[in-house]
Amino acid sequence: MVGDDFDWLKGRHSFTFGGDFKWPHPSEWTILNYNTPTLGLGGDTSSLAVPTGTPSMRPNDLAPGNGTALYDSAYALALGVVTATDATFYYNSSLNPIPQGTPQTHDYHYKEAEAYFNDTWKAMPSLTLTYGVQWQFFSVPYDVHGIQSISQYYDNPGQKFDFQSYFWGRAKQSSQGVQGNLAVPLIDYVLGGKANHAPGYYSPQYDNIAPKFAFAFTPPGNRNMVVSGGANIVYDQTVINAIQYQQSQFSYLFQASNPTPYGTEGNAYASFQADQRWGGLNNPPAPPSAPVSSSPFLPYVSGTGTNAVPNGLINGSAFNEIIDPQLKTPYSIGYNLGVQQQFDGGKFLLSMTYVGRLGRRLIAQVDASQLIDFPDTKSGQMMSQAFANISEEVRKGLPVTTQPWYEDVLTPGIGQAYGFANNTDLVAQGLSTYVGRGDFADTTQALAGAGALPPNVGMDSQFAEDTIYTNQGFSTYNGLLVTLHKNMSSGLQFDLNYTWSHSIDNTSLIGNQIAFGGYGFICDELRPRECRGNSDFDIANNLTGNLIYNLPIGRGQTLAGNAPFWLNEVIGGWELSGIPNWHTGNPFNAGANAFVAGYANNAPAILASGSLADMKIHIHGGKGQPLYAFANPQKANADYTGPVGFEIGSRNNLYGPGFFDLDLGAGKTFAIRESMNVEFRADAFNAFNHPNFGTPTVDITDSAGPFGQITSQASAGDIGSNPNPLSSGESPRVLQGSLYFKF
């Protein structure tokens, strides 16, 4: 780093200005290029009974139900049959495979620069103003070895993928009812980054200008009070970490796998005769050869040109991640206004501060393959209308009404081909679990996988999930922070801190973590405020503190001030301490295990009753019985229903049990002589042995863990306010004694 700072005092002004320049070179390596043999039933067969007519490998007295499946797996495993081998390979910048087990090393280069100017102006004896401006620059990181790829459009080489044009192009295509393999542009990958003389992930931003202003004012006639406030803009570097993570973890050009099934497809008997047997750890099966890697690389597509057929949605596990080339540096706007007042001769200091923070352009992940409504051009019925209708009928146990959309848009006769009366019954009965939950996206993917859904209807056919890192996150925080501090006097010193606050956002996932398992995504790009709600970490009320009290007993104290030496050694010099910690519960929402707008988004359940009264925390049960958070869990569960079409419930509209913890301590120092003493301490963590419970189960469809059941304890550390690692709701009372000899 190179930098310099200058100070210039002139009259009532104190000017500071300067800057610095950094060129970080972080490096990291990963080893995921290993072989994975599969033992047991698998490979090209799924049952010992296929095909019909081959010699039977099952006994005749198997139990009904899942007994055959369990026996098949156990029999194949006992034989030690190697049914498949998967292998992961790494490639260098020339796209040649490197030896397995060799780390793939990344050396990153990027630059940071900043320049600033500040002035602190003593405008009046009672008023100080501080103002200034800062300019920040973060270049786009790149791998110096060229282990970097970027996405582009397959039918328009050289044009980088752009989230906005891609997604809203999909929205237009869907609204017009256009279908087909090439109805949505295909995405491929090419070498990228400075080391490959190619474009980077996104363009650098040169206009990160951050002004700031603050003041401090002492009202005339009250020298013990200070009123202060200010506002500023802060740019966030998490975008750099997010980029580096993607460079290391995701690339089609520099990492590939080659799953190789063995045996005869659909013939268990012939497979087991020919398949290799497990020979021990020192004699593993030979790995498959490394696939050829070339640029451009077109993932999850078979064929080329006008004959290209995307198959990622049919695959169901074709997950993709892309950095939006339009990415900007996230920033936040902070502001505060506070009052500090000393009183009682300086013994006490009361501070009250309002703090606000607006997060803008935050890193947020969006599924570009998300579900988009699609019309039936013949009847005019929308896909969402058809799905909503059969969802409610299946939930109520009513006869399913034939829906024009399914009859007209799905492959003609596909329902009858699968043994159902029509296409609507194929969806309503064949996928009844998904339909009853309101799981719109999984239903759509299942229809694509069954060959019933035309390409690019509802969801993008190239990827089952296409995660894009965008700037679509936003947040709002407002809080009142109150602190009462007492300096040591009369043997007592304490701090009490209380915060009343509220935080709202559309996703609480931090910028450099991956959204996964239905959590962390923007709910719906077409309805961007649909999941705007209480932040995952929103704690409305939070009280913490600490106190130290020297008991006024013993020689020179209020009580027993003339105690003799031997008595003072017993009753004098005792110190008590305490650390209280209390806060209200963490937010959560009821879930229906239903993925609606995207294959990646687990949607909140709908509060059909319209009232949250049944979800008020009323912990009961225990003593060998299930513990519940609600007075009537069955009624609370009945208040909810699954999503209906694209309609979902509210995010984080419920709050779990609160938290309380109190740590107490006592200590005394015994003087032996002037330079020697013995210190004794006794501490009680969670002194009242108070249990603190975690968030209750949230799934309204899970009979194994009923809605509202409490299955875990909570920890104060969940919100970062725990002052002692031994003090947590996860532990019963802990008593600790110590004796120190000091000399």
Summarize the structure.
This protein has 743 residues and is α+β, with helices and mostly antiparallel strands. It is 15% helix and 37% strand. The strands form 9 sheets. The chain has a 17-stranded mixed β-sheet that branches. Strands 4, 5, 15 and 16 form a 4-stranded antiparallel β-sheet that branches. Strands 3-6-9 form a 3-stranded antiparallel β-sheet, covered by helices on one side.
Strand content: 35-45%
Stretches where pLDDT is under 50 for at least 5 consecutive residues are 717-729
Average of the residue pLDDT scores? 90
Total beta strands: 38
Strands, helices and their partners?
Blueprint: E1 2-10, E2 13-22, E3 27-30, E4 35-39, H1 67-79, E5 82-90, E6 104-109, E7 112-124, E8 127-138, E9 142-143, E10 149-153, E11 156-160, H2 163-175, E12 187-191, E13 208-217, E14 225-235, H3 238-249, E15 255-257, E16 260-261, H4 268-274, E17 301-302, E18 309-310, H5 312-315, E19 319-323, E20 331-343, E21 348-367, H6 383-396, H7 404-409, H8 414-417, H9 423-430, H10 432-437, H11 440-449, E22 465-489, E23 492-505, E24 533-534, E25 541-550, H12 565-571, E26 574-583, E27 587-588, E28 591-595, E29 602-604, E30 606-607, E31 617-621, E32 627-630, H13 633-638, E33 640-641, E34 654-655, E35 659-673, E36 676-685, E37 709-710, E38 734-742
Parallel strand pairs: 19-22
Antiparallel strand pairs: 1-2, 2-7, 3-6, 4-5, 5-15, 5-16, 6-9, 7-8, 8-13, 10-11, 10-12, 13-14, 14-20, 17-18, 20-21, 21-22, 22-23, 23-24, 23-25, 25-26, 26-35, 27-34, 28-29, 30-33, 31-32, 32-37, 35-36, 36-38
